[in-house]
Amino acid sequence: MTTPAIREPCADQDLLLHGLLDGELDASNTLRAEAHLRECRACAAFYERLKAGRQRRTSGVRHRASDALRERVRAALAAEVASGAEPACAAIPSPPAEAVPVPARRRRMVERWPVALALAACLAMAAILPRVGDRAGSALPDELVSGHVRSLLASHLTDVTTSDQHGVKPWFSGKISFAPPVVDLSERGFALVGGRLDYLGGRVVAALVYKRREHVINLFIWPETPAQDGDRSVRMSREGYSLLRWTQAGLTFWAVSDLNPTELQEFEQDFADRVPS
Q1: Domains of the chain by residue range
Q2: 64: DSSP letter
Q3: Domain spanning 135-273, CATH class
Q4: 161: three-class secondary structure by DSSP
Q5: Using one digit for the tens of pLDDT, what is the confidence trace for 16-32?
Q6: Fewer CB near the terminus (10 Å): N or C of the chain?
């Protein structure tokens, strides 16, 4: 008779199944493991083998004391207490902590706690530092580039798509607390594509989108805040993108594009020339 081949469990389920058997999983992972067992015969068979092995190791180890022995022990303890003597069991020293056997799985978890705590601290710092950087102005250019790239990758270049400046400007009304200027620069080679709302530096901002050839220009606009935004004019690059910043008419403008710096500066000048002071 041929012995049926034993199928190995799924590689990503081995630890989960051991943890399920040991009762070490949280509710989410317990449900995940149990759902997998209902769908995967190999893992279900493996789990049954684990349980059978556990039962074989523990069967015959425990022996319940007889009722007569239990009564004699209770009587002896009661007599010692009545006589004022310390019970003999109290004199048995507890084993030192290091002598208490710890399951290997639980020992590995304890050993990993310092690493997990250090990682949690790093993640907490990462969540705090960008907010501090916003106030110092050092993280804002990175956020601007991220917003520019995100708009290209997420197919969210515009919320309102039109080349008509009179169609884009009214769209922002009621959505933000200021009126961003929208100008037509098509005769200068910068075609208006549309506009959208974005979120940068802890604030909702307006974003106008222009194109020159195949290059997209995101122009982010929000009310001027000199104490936070620093210098009135900035030119820099990040990760291959050019960034230009200027302030005008009580507003802050940031232009971001992979367009070469010279042409992006032309865009800045053409736009600024058409914005009322």
Answers
A1: 11-56, 135-273
A2: P
A3: alpha beta
A4: strand
A5: 888 788 887 777 678 88
A6: N
